[in-house]
Amino acid sequence: MGKRRGDDVLVASVPAVVTETIFTAAMSPSPSSRPAGANNHSPPSWIDSASFDHKLMVVRENLKLDVSSMDDFLAEVEHCQGKMHDFQRKQEDIKASSQSIQDRLMEKIQQEEAKCQVESANVETMEKELQEIAQERDSIANDIADLNRMRDDLTQRIAMAVEEASQQVEDINMVDEARKNQVPRLKHQISLYADTTGIKWDFEDDKRLEGHVSISSKQVVRSFSIDPQDHTKFEIANKLWGIMDTSQRL
């Protein structure tokens, strides 16, 4: 049977009403047996020996209920009480289940909070690592910029050095060309000087001025060896002229 509207009020109030009704009926004598002028609140002597069936009959008479109506009423009361007990058991089950769910949720929350703390620590560590990587990246970028500047500077220097070397090579080529052109002339001059002075130079020892003076007409040959560190150019020239004059006078 479904729960009808007002059953909660009925279940709560019926036991008290029935108890009060039974007590009132048991304590109240019937109109025929009540002595004239007797106090309405004084219990009659017949109550002590009366049976419960008689009391129930009195209650039924006072409530004007027949047996079938009372049985239906008591059955309804018992049904409502059973519903109430079922509701209380379900309420306790729900409460226990709710507590279990709450405990599991709290445990899950604590686990997730612990995970969050670990992840927060990991995030902080990763942030520090990222900062270090960023600093290292900036340092490398600065080094690369410095290297690029050095490369550009070296490129300019190399270009200048190449240009200077090219100029020097050109100058050397010009000097070499001039030397090549001058060598025959010098040889010719030296040959003339040798024929005139009779000096034949010996270039084996580059630290001394060595050679000989030959006068072919007189078949005279005189050797000489002069240390340029011990004589000035003027003195060397005088020595050579002296050797030539002596050779010619012989």
UniProtKB/TrEMBL annotation:
InterPro entries to which the protein is assigned, alphabetical: Ndc80_Spc24
Organism superkingdom: Eukaryota
Major localisation: nucleus
Family assignment from sequence similarity: Belongs to the SPC24 family.
Coiled coil: 109-164
Function: Acts as a component of the essential kinetochore-associated NDC80 complex, which is required for chromosome segregation and spindle checkpoint activity.
GO CC annotation: kinetochore; nucleus
Subcellular location: Nucleus; Chromosome, Centromere, Kinetochore
Source organism per UniProt: Seminavis robusta
Single GO BP term: cell division
Known partners and oligomeric status: Component of the NDC80 complex.
Organismal lineage: Eukaryota, Sar, Stramenopiles, Ochrophyta, Bacillariophyta
Keyword tags: Cell cycle, Cell division, Centromere, Chromosome, Coiled coil, Kinetochore, Mitosis, Nucleus
Protein name stated in the entry: Kinetochore protein Spc24
